[in-house]
Structures are given as C-alpha cells and as structure tokens.
Amino acid sequence: MTEVNSPPRLGGWTRFVTARPRLSLLVALVLTALAVVAGSGVADRLGSGGWEDPTAQSTYATKALEREFPASQPNLLLLVDSGSASVDDPAVAAEADRLTARLASEKGVIGVGSYWRTKSPGLRAKDGHEALIAAHLTGDEKATNDTLDRIAPALRGTHGPVHVKVGGIVAVRHEMQTIIKEDLARAEMIALPVTLLLLVMVFGSAIAALLPLGIGIVAILGTNAVLRGLTEFTDVSVFAMNLTTALGLGLAIDYALFIVRRFREELATGGEPLTAIATTLRTAGRTVLFSALTVAVSLAAMLVFPMYFLRSFAYAGIAVVLLAAAAALILLPAALLLLGHRVNSLDLRRLFRRGRPAQAQAAAQAPASGEGTAWARLANLVMRRAPFFALATAAVLVLLGLPFLGVKFGTADDRQLPAGAESHVVQQHIRDGFPGNPGGGLEVLAEGSATPAQYTAYKAEIARLPEVAGVDGPLVKGDSAYFTVLPKGEAVDSAAQRLVGELRSADAPFTTKVTGTAAVLVDSKHAIATRLPWAAALIVIVTLLLVFLLTGSVLIPIQAVLLNALSLTAMFGAVVWVFQDGHLSGLLGFTSPGSIETTLPVLMFCVAFGLSMDYGVFLLSRIKEEYDRTGDHNEAVRHGLQRTGGLITAAAVILAVVMVAIGTSRVTNTKMLGLGIALAVLMDAMIVRSLLVPAVMKLTGTATWWAPAPLRRFHDRFGVSEGGENPPRGAGNGATNHDVPADENSDGSPNESGGVRAIR
Q: What is this structure's pTM?
C-alpha cells in the first residue's frame, strides 16, 4: 500500500512538462518573441478574395480575358461627377480626357477606356451627370494594391469641373483589407479587457484569471507566424486573421479554464501541487487533447474545398487549435507547478465579502467544492421531465432554423463594405444610376480559328435564348474572341444562372467558356456541392471515432453528432433572417445584398460544429468519469452537469464575447461570422448541453453505454476516459474497475496496451 507521504507516481507526460518548469517558460517566452517578429506584417500579405474555384471554367475564362482582352475585365473604375453640368460639356470632356490619359500613362495600368472616348451608353449615367473611366491593373493582388496605393491619391478628389471617386474590384478588395485590419485591432481592444474581467469573475483570483489569457495570446501570436510562413507558398485570406483571434482567445481560454479549474479542485482536496498537476493532466488534460482533435478535424474539412478563402480558415484554425492545446498542456502545467497554492492569490472577490475572512479564504482555495447546486437541481428537473425537455428543445431549435429553407446564395461584392466606403458608393451609383445591368454581364470566351460568318451565326444563336437581353461583340484577337451577353434579370438570379448553363451547352464551331458574376456563382456552388459530402463524411467519421475512444459507447458518438448539428439550426436561421432578409440591418449597420455568400455557411458550420464538440467533450468526459467510478448512469449525468455546467457556460460566454467583438466589424461577412457563431456557442452551451443532452441521456438510460464485444475490446486497448479507467462492465450493474490503476495490470505490472493513454 502506498504511503500517504510517499512521492506521487508520475506518468511520462507529467514528468516531461514539470521537469524544468522555469526553463519551459523561458523557452516559451523566447519562442513567443520570435513569433512576434516572424508574424509582423502578416496582414499586408493576406488576400481579400478566394471565393472562386481556381479550377473552374469561369476562372480560366477570366484569366484568359485578362491576358488577351484586358479592357474586357476592368478592375478599376473612376466615377466622374460633373455636378450640375452635363458630362458632355466641353470643359468636363476636356478634363475627363486629361484624367484618362494620365491613368493610361501609369505603370501597371492597361486597357484604359472612358465614356468620352468610346461614347458607350453603358458608361454614362441616365441623368447625364456622371460617367466612368475604366482600366485594368495588372499583376497579382499585392501588385494591384501597390499600384492603387500609388495612383489613387492623385486621381480622387476635385479636378477642375469634375469630382472623382475610385471604385472597382481592386478598390473594393483594398478597402476591405484596410477595414478588416482596423476592425480586428478594435475587436482585440474590446475583447481582451472584457475577457479578463469575466475570468476574474469566474476564478476570483487575478493570478488564475491571467493564465488563460496568457495562453490565448501565445496561441494568437504563434498562429500569426504560421500564417506569415504560409503566405510564402500559397494564398491566405485576410479574413483568416479574425478566426485566429477568435479561436486563439476562445479555445485557449476554454482549455486553460478546464485545466486551471481541475488543478484548483485537486489542491482543495489537500493534494500537493505536483500531485494535483498529475491528476489534472490525467483527467482534464486528456479531455483537452480530445477536444482539440475534434475541433481541428472540423476545421480540416475545409481543406477539401478548392477556394483559398475556405482553405485559409483551415490553415489558421488548425494552427491556432494545436498551439492553444500545446500551450495548455505544456506551458500551463509548468506555470501551475511554480505557482502552486499561489494560483489562488489576489482574490478580488474578497473586496465584496465582509466579516468572514475564513470563509472567504476557503472559498478561494476550493472554488468548485460547493458550487453546482443549481446545476444539480437543473439536471434533476430535466431528467424527471426528460420527454418534455427533449421534444420541446428539439422543436424550438428546428423552428429557429426554418428561415434557412429560404436561403439564396450569391457572391461577395462591395455591399460587404459599410455604406460610406468610397468603393461601395461608386458601385451603388453604378447600380442605381447607369443603364443596363452593370456587373451582370456574362463573357463568352471563344478559342479556335473561326470565320466572321461563324461568329455571326453563333451570336445570332445565343441572342435567341429566352433569358438574353442583348449580345455585344465579338472582339477578335488572333484565334480568340469574346462576346458580352446581357441577361434580362438580375446579375445572379436563377434566370442568369440558367443562362450560364444554356451558353455552355450551345453549339459552336469553336471552344467556348463562360465567365461573369453568375458563372462564378454557378461554379462555386458546384464546387461546394460536389465536395460537401466528403467534408461532412470526414467530420462525422472522425468525430464518431474520437468520441467512441473517449466513451467506449456506440450510442454516445451518434448522439453527439446529431445533437451538435441540431445546435447549429438557430445560427443558420438567424443568418438568413438577419443578413439575407435584412432584418436588424439598421441596428447592426450593414447593407443586405439579399443573398448569402456561398462559402459562408460551410465555414460557419465547420467552426461552430467544432466548438460545439469542444463543449460536448467537456461534458461527456466528466459524465464518463463519474460513470466509471460509480456505475450509476443517472448520477453520472447529474454529476457531469453539476461539475461542468458552470464551466461550460462561463467558457461559452467568454467565447461569445470574443465573437461579438469580431462581429462589430464593418465588413458584413465578418459581422455575420462573429455574431452567428456567438449565437451558436450560446445556444449550444445553454440549451443543448444544459437541457437536451441530459434529457436524451436519461431517455436512453444505461443503453447509452452499450457497445458490441469487438468494439469493447478495441476500446479496452486504445480508448481512454477522463478518469483513466475502463468503463464498468455488466450493462450498468455498478461494477467498476477502479480497484486496479489504469496503467497497471492486475499483477501490478505496467500496462503498455493503451496507445492513446499518453497524457499522465
């Protein structure tokens, strides 16, 4: 029998992270400083596009047209306002010609044209007081941004009788990058102090509160360095920085909360710091590892898609999750060992306690020992009325998700920007005041030798299509030519999308490829639809496996996947009701384009599903630990909710604060991402984990823990539980295996069977 005062038996991982705690923290400090240097300037190297499928027909046609017919793909527009005079006034025309010539003389600018040179009615506003100068800036996104920075200051503003505003795709993307960087800095200034305040409220101790925040900052800085390195090899979206901040703070705080809380619980039972660290890593540490894996898998599913917008979130998300988990499992134990009981120092809650110092000290040292009574009562209530709570909560979640049935998919454009943004103003003036359907035209690239008669016959054929309002062209250069097709309806409505298919299937004596706004949308939807089953399969299969390894149950992984998916319905319903249909647009300060950008639901599902699994693993691991200890299913559910309900709710509120701070962005997609995921996180923690999960587990009873014999043997060999013990056998008869330590056989020899049982 082990003596009470004998040194604790430590596993390999505990020995590793506690052997040289000061050295570990010093190395982490040096690496963090290097990450600050390596990650500096990362925002300037990130792109603001990436919504298109790079392998699609529309992408090929766009690049070919940019190369052969740059004037057909203007990405810079100058809106020339002549005030009360007509754009045809001689003084206005002279000044516009001077501006056109000046723009054409700039390096990196080709394909310059204007209303005053072409007299095209599509370049003149219907009221006659505005007209356009169009050009194409050459090079990649960084090159076009540099060119715009160089030429825009001299072009915008008042020039004699005219006033010029700068717009076009290049200006929209440049302005979006600038706004996102400014908004991210503001979001961090909001989130950090509010998060610290909430952590102090959760822990009481200022020392304990600073630890999760420090882990989050390390994860964010490390991920910025990773993203900076990735920009040397591939395109990375500027939007990924928002996810880095949100997940870096949110998940690192989640993991640190879980570990620090368990460490303080172990100290409160009278354990020494080293013993408390060992128990914490064997229990909460394993849960953090499994949680990080489930979140990383959900985010990795975005690598299936070809758009670099989605892939960027996978890069950033996987990096920040793994760094957060590594910091929580390596740096945090070292810091806790050095702090010991001082982790409870600077208890700010004592300022609000009067006359009871002894009780205050006891509460600070044992923050979890008496808490959870309300959660226990809630668990008892839910399990007594399990059918009602299961049906009622499921019905409410389904009802909240119904607006998503009316979703309309579209493409990102200038309406992502605030109403006062210059490039948005330019595009809105074009939409409202210019004839035809600006931005809605389709370009048909024709490749291969052809005669003028063949071009004429093809033009007549596509002009007869019912959705076509007009056809311009062809403009011929060598063996290539292009036609511009104007649809009758809106730029990306269902008729325009049908027209894309009709143009692609039309007979022609040469090879044709179609591009344009509607064509890009069609190709993006196709890319997502064909790859979505693979992404979903990856998430579901790996999640089922990981949860099975954690619980040893067949039913619990299935429940976890289904209930997690159900928890996201409110988010998707709100996205359509608010951001597509425009409700609350005035309050939230955005312009609704009447559609949802195609990639956003995929992104939000992967992120929100991973975060939901994060909280699900926290709850299930504690339930499993108690079931292993007692074999009492109902008591295990009650105890699990009692012990983790407050923790999960606190973590969800903190993460929601971070996401809402991100949601204050002036860019609509970022606002949608932040506010939507904040809603999903709160719904999951406060509705699904608190009501639906315990109700469903009560209904399934001890069958919850069933697994066929082959799978039981598989779990015995490779699975883990938070308590480090095998589940009780005998179909819930209360038998347990906790008489034999998990890392020993019955004869006391070491157990080498568990490949995943590494964190001890």
A: 0.83
